[in-house]
Amino acid sequence: MFENLSERLSGVFDRLTKQGALSEDDVKTALREVRVALLEADVSLPVARDFVKKVQEQATGQAVTKSITPGQQVVKIVHDALVDTLTGEGEPGALKIDNPPAPILMVGLQGSGKTTTTAKLAKRLTEKDGKRVLMASLDVNRPAAMEQLEILGRQIGVDTLPIVKGEDPVAIAKRAKTQASLGGYDVYMLDTAGRLHIDAELIQQAAQVRDVANPRETLLVVDGLTGQDAVNVATEFDDKIGVSGVVLTRMDGDGRGGAALSMRAVTGKPIKYVGLGEKMDAIETFEPDRIAGRILGMGDIVSLVEKAQETIEAEQAEKMMKRFQKGRFNLNDMKMQLEQMLKMGGMEGVMGMMPGMGKMAKQVQDSGFDDKILKQQIALIQSMTKMERANPQILQASRKKRIAKGAGMEVSELNKLLKMQRQMGDMMKKMGKGGMLKQAMKGMF
Ligand code: GDP
C-alpha cells in the first residue's frame, strides 16, 4: 500500500538530511517535490496544492532555525498534516449502531468489494462487538450476488435474510427490518445492488431503500485502486444518497494510496475501514496515523530519526559531561555509554580512544569482554525500572533476581555490571576534576 508515494517522499527527505540545516528554500524545494509525489500518487491537484500550502505555512512558521534535526522536523510536519487531512471525526471505525435493530446501508459500484465488505463487517461486529447481525442482499438483478452473500453468511456464521424470488429491493428492506426486530438482532445490513457505473436507476433504487430503512450508517464501498475515480464515485454517491462513511477496499495492493487523501479532503467523509484482502478477516479500522506513516515510509523515518539523533547526541554528551564532572553516573548514563560504544566499534575501539583508559582496555580484553557482553549489559539495564536505573543503590537481592531473570541472565552478571558502573562513575569523577573527561568525551561523540 502507498509504495509509490512513500518511495518518492523518502527520496525527498533523504536529500534533506544530507544537507544538514534546513533553509526556507530547502523547505520550498522539498515541498515542491512532495507535491509532485502526491500528484503521482493520484492525489487530486487541488488537494495536493492545499496540502503543500498547509505544510509550507507550518514549516515556515516553525522557524527551522534549530539546526539539529531539519529532516526530522519536516517529516514530522508533513506527517502531522497528513494525519490532519486523513482524520475524521469520532473514533476510527466507530459505527452508530445503538437502538437495535440498527440498519446499515451498504452502497457502491459492482466489483468494488461491497458484498465481501458487508460480510467482513458483519463478522467483525459479531466477533469483536458481540452483536447479533442479520444480512440481506437487495441485488435483485443478480441472483448470483444474493447467493454470494448467503454463502458468505454461512461461512462466517452470520444469518442472512432468506431469499424470496420476485421481491423488489424496497420489499426486501422492509422484510429485513421486520425480521431484525422480531429476531432480536442488533444490526441489519442491507447490501444494495451495484452497477458498473452510477446510473439513475441505481441511485433511485438506493434512495428508495434509504427512505424505507432510515439507515444509521450509509457506508460507501470504493475500490482504493481506482484513485481519482474512487473520489468521483464518492462525491456522486454522497450528493445523491448521502454517505456517512467510506470503506476503501484493495488497500492490500500496491496501488496509489493517494485515493485515501483525496477521498477525505474532497468528500469530507470519514474513511471508516480499509479492506486488506479477500479473506473475511482482512478488514481494519482506518487509522490516520498508520496510513500517514505508510505514506511517508516508516523505515525511512526511523533511519532519519537515527541520523538526527547523532546530532542530538552531541548535545546530550555535553549535558552528560556536566553530570559526570559532578560525579553523577547512573545506569541510564551507562546504558547510553554502552550503546554508544557498540556504535563506535565496540569496547576496544572506545577504550582506545579514551586517554588514560589503555590499561582498562587491556583488562577488558583479558577478561573476554566483547560486544556480546555489551549487549547483555544493555539488556540487563533495560530490564530495570526507571527508578532502579537512576538509583542503582536500591538494588537489593529480590530486585536483582527479577532484573537478571528479565534479561535471561544470572545475578552474578548483574553484579559485574554494577561494579563496572561504580568504577566508571569513579573514573569519570576523577577525570572530570583533571579536565581529562572533556578530552575523552570529545573522542567519543
Ligand atoms: P461487489 O460486486 O462490490 O459486491 O464485489 P465483491 O464483494 O463480490 O468483490 C469483488 C472481488 O473483490 C472479490 O473477488 C473479492 O474477494 C475481492 N475483494 C473485495 N475486497 C477486497 C480487498 O480489500 N482486497 C482484495 N485484494 N480483494 C478484495
Keywords for this structure?
Four Helix Bundle (Hemerythrin (Met), subunit A); alpha/beta; 434 Repressor (Amino-terminal Domain); eight-stranded mixed β-sheet; 62% helix; single chain; 445 residues; binds guanosine-5'-diphosphate; elongated; 9% strand; Rossmann fold; 8 strands
How many domains in all? 3
Estimate the global geometry from the Cα principal axes: elongated
Architecture (CATH level 2) name of the largest domain: 3-Layer(aba) Sandwich
CATH top-level class of the largest domain: Alpha Beta
Structural class assignment:
alpha/beta
Low-pLDDT stretches are 64-69, 297-309, 352-356
CATH topology of the largest domain: Rossmann fold
Alpha-carbon distance between the termini?
39 Å
Roughly how many Å is the radius of gyration?
30 Å
Q: Strand percentage, roughly?
A: 5-15%
Instruction: Specify the biggest β-sheet.
Output: 8 strands, mixed
**What ligands can be seen in this structure?**
guanosine-5'-diphosphate
Question: Can you give me a brief rundown of this structure?
Answer:
The protein has 445 residues and is of the alpha/beta class. 62% of the residues lie in helices and 9% in strands. Guanosine-5'-diphosphate (GDP) is lined by residues 108, 110-116, 194, 249-250, 252, 275-278, 282.
Walk me through the structure.
This protein is an alpha/beta fold and 445 residues long. The chain folds into 3 domains: 85 residues, Four Helix Bundle (Hemerythrin (Met), subunit A); 185 residues, P-loop containing nucleotide triphosphate hydrolases (Rossmann fold, 3-Layer(aba) Sandwich); 119 residues, 434 Repressor (Amino-terminal Domain) (Orthogonal Bundle). The protein has 20 helices and 8 strands. Strands 3-2-4-1-5-6-7-8 form an 8-stranded mixed beta sheet, sandwiched between helices. The protein is elongated and about 95 Å long. The structure holds guanosine-5'-diphosphate. The site of guanosine-5'-diphosphate has 17 residues, from helix 5. Guanosine-5'-diphosphate binds next to helix 5.
